């Protein structure tokens, strides 16, 4: 029996190559139908239509109200495909909106209620679409920790954020990358101030709002108004949140979980790096299983583990060596790795 | 089978069989979520105790004093806030674990295992020692000390009221925080503990705020010596101004309820309280201790039958929160988790070299707000007529007084404390007028107890103040020196520089008071201060140096977070003349407040190259007299005042004696363990210059006409110096 921490991905993980993912992998048709019923009732495009579209459309597939639902559904499908006879799941965590998925995986929300939360919050984000997000790395290609560089970038973020009419915050601590969020002036000032890297960074994220910043306070308030605390239950598995706090089965305060999920989680920095660090250090799993869709979160998980010095890793090369000798990561979005963890 | 395994097996067997010990039904304000959290913390604490023993057996761990039987402290943690600074007993793993559950982002299991393993990545001590402690959890590091942490807990509690009036720049504690301090029933009898209780009571009796919760974890035994039955309740239940609460630490509901009441009392009333928590001790004192060698097996087994974890399973079951099977599952999952994490933790790197170990003896500097100093108006208001007096040379005690005044004007966070420093202005008048200038809150007349004075300083420093405690006479330091040696000096070391207690301890001392006081007012031994790693000892010989060195000492404390002892030679406080009556040769002008003598800079008087007289304090004064007389005999001497007694400013001294054909060390401290030993070793190791020493005898100081008979005199210096040239020894 292997132990595993499951990591649920956030926005930006359902892309062109993920078209058809849900129809291919979702193992529970009645559950999927219950999601579709919610979508239809809200006059939203169904997951079947989106997932089955011939072409991926940034305008359509990355909208908050669509992307959140697609990602949540794909995650839940993957989670329920994990072979629990061979794999003992010792904790669940997630990145950003992956927190909603993690809540459902851990049993703090039913799969249906989890869908309601993810779908509602995605829709609210899309309705307001306050500000935006960008990504910028602070590690080089070898992923070695560079704390000075990180500190300098965060100091820059603070200085830009302090300017009149500029809003800029650390949105997500994402392994070797900083996800920043703010208003257009803040984001543009950062674009101007830093060196372009790898012809991609700083990378603006289409259809993303200023998630995990105080700018989201109105969205959080609407979320609390629409989604009652009664939806939340005691988790059945330990959950590690975006502050690195652990919510234990039975001992968790469901109302506090609701409050965190629809307040601090939405309006304060999401520290994914710390969540992974705590998951490693407090649960020491054999494996980190990253559910689909996509496989892009694997890099951030690996970088987080390197930053934590987990298993003595200090670089990308160390991680590769680790993966070869005693695999630490399994991305369900990658067929070969998926095969190692699902029911056959 | 060892007792730890027996207790473990008992738990598994009895919970599986539903064979749980009798007790009260659960009642009180503990929520079901908090109850489960406390149980989880208790299971983790228990599991870590067992793991620490396995690790030691495998050569991977180095500490086995456990918390088993004291898991009720998790309920005390739940009743407090993470912002309440906690000075912990070494059996309080459960407290720290439960507190970690209140602060997001903690990895307490990993951290505790790293500390067992003495890994360099241990987040509190950096692998130097197994301590309980955490910067983020407001738990200063504590290890196997017996009650020596109580005086500083009193000081930290006192700082809370003071910080409301004078908020220091580096303030640490929230205004509504309280201080918690725990210890065992055996430690409660220690004189240090008794002094702390008394000081807390004495303070509260005068209605000064002292929000301090003492927690006595009464397991009924100290290693092998039993506490008389009922002793703790008998001696603590009726003390003035120390409200007594009693709780059963085997019952998390009772422990939480009473701890909450006690904490509320302390927080609301700002008064001290004593929480008497019944605990048991499982597995004996530490790994190597076998309790059945001094206790009957039946007694040991009777204690084990009352395992608090078994009581918790019963209570959680009775409350309908967890079935015994669910509780057992949490226990077993926790053990499995500890096993998994330990496999990784024991692989983490450890300290290797002396420099690795020593890198946190000296704390890191901190950034302090820049100040232009007090305005002329503020100085004028504070000094009054003394400003005019500054135009004339003055005696040392006055110049120290003025330096203190300027320092306190410039830095609000400086607070003085000591016996008679306030209203009286010090027994030698050094602190005269300071109380009037700065108020009784910043010039504190303390209780007559040196441990409490130093504890007050250490505790205030924990909350960002820069204390300047005074020890009235050097001989009185000795009963309290552990507050410097075992507590203040070790704090950066055990916390990897994260916790600091910078301060300047003023000590009036050394000999030569004409016919006054005898030994206890003229003690000339500083050996007890010189071997404390990281501690700076400064000793001026004249008023101008004293002012400039005191400013440097305050800077070292304030900016570099250093622990400094400023040793003031009492006999030189009033000294006016140097060579003859009326020459005013030892009176000095007050140096401009901007002037300091940098740490490690020595004083050199004269440039003679026949002889370097290396000395300090009274010796510098006497050597200056001798220097003049030697010149009359054709011996050209220079007097080198080392000023800094610890660490010895070696390079500066070698430069100062450079070119001299002879060295005479003049040391007013004892021949054995005195400063001269270090100086002789330095010159022997690093020069080829002929060196001799003149020291005090290995004696106590006499009263009456022979007051100086055992110490160097100017005549002795002249004679010894002359002998160096004639070859007579």
Concise description?
The complex is a heterodimer of chains A (344) and B (729). Chain A has 344 residues and is α/β, with parallel strands linked by helices.
Characterize the structure shown.
The complex is a heterodimer of chains A (344) and B (729). In chain A, helix 5 runs parallel beside helix 6 and helix 6 runs antiparallel to helix 7. Chain A is 45% helix and 14% strand. The mean pLDDT of chain A is 96. Chain A is of the alpha/beta class. Chain B is an alpha/beta fold and 729 residues long. Chain B has 26 helices and 21 strands. Chain B has a 7-stranded mixed sheet, sandwiched between helices. A 5-stranded parallel sheet of chain B has the order 1-4-5-9-8, with helices on both faces. In chain B, helix 3 packs parallel to helix 4 and helix 23 packs across helix 26. Chain B is elongated and about 100 Å long. The N and C termini of chain B lie far apart (70 Å). The interface between A and B is medium-sized, with 25 and 26 residues.
List the helices and strands and how they pair.
The complex is a heterodimer of chains A (344) and B (729).
Chain A: E1 2-8, H1 21-25, H2 29-41, H3 47-51, H4 58-61, H5 64-79, E2 87-94, H6 98-105, H7 111-128, E3 132-137, H8 147-161, E4 168-174, E5 177-182, H9 184-193, E6 203-204, H10 217-226, E7 239-240, E8 246-247, H11 254-261, H12 264-267, E9 270-271, H13 272-283, E10 287-290, H14 297-307, H15 316-325, E11 329-331, H16 335-339
Parallel strand pairs in A: 1-2, 1-10, 2-7, 4-9, 10-11
Antiparallel strand pairs in A: 3-5, 3-6, 4-5, 7-8
Chain B: H1 3-17, H2 32-57, H3 73-79, E1 86-87, H4 93-100, H5 108-116, E2 132-134, E3 139-142, H6 150-165, E4 179-184, H7 191-205, E5 212-218, E6 221-222, E7 225-226, H8 231-236, E8 243-248, H9 252-269, E9 273-278, H10 297-304, H11 308-318, H12 324-345, H13 354-358, H14 376-383, H15 386-389, H16 396-410, E10 414-418, H17 434-438, E11 443-445, H18 450-462, E12 466-471, H19 482-488, H20 491-494, E13 503-509, H21 527-530, E14 536-538, H22 543-560, E15 563-569, E16 603-605, E17 611-615, H23 617-632, E18 637-641, E19 644-646, H24 650-656, E20 662-670, H25 675-686, E21 690-696, H26 714-726
Parallel strand pairs in B: 1-4, 4-5, 5-9, 8-9, 10-11, 10-12, 12-13, 13-15, 14-15, 17-18, 17-20, 20-21
Antiparallel strand pairs in B: 2-3, 6-7, 14-19, 16-18
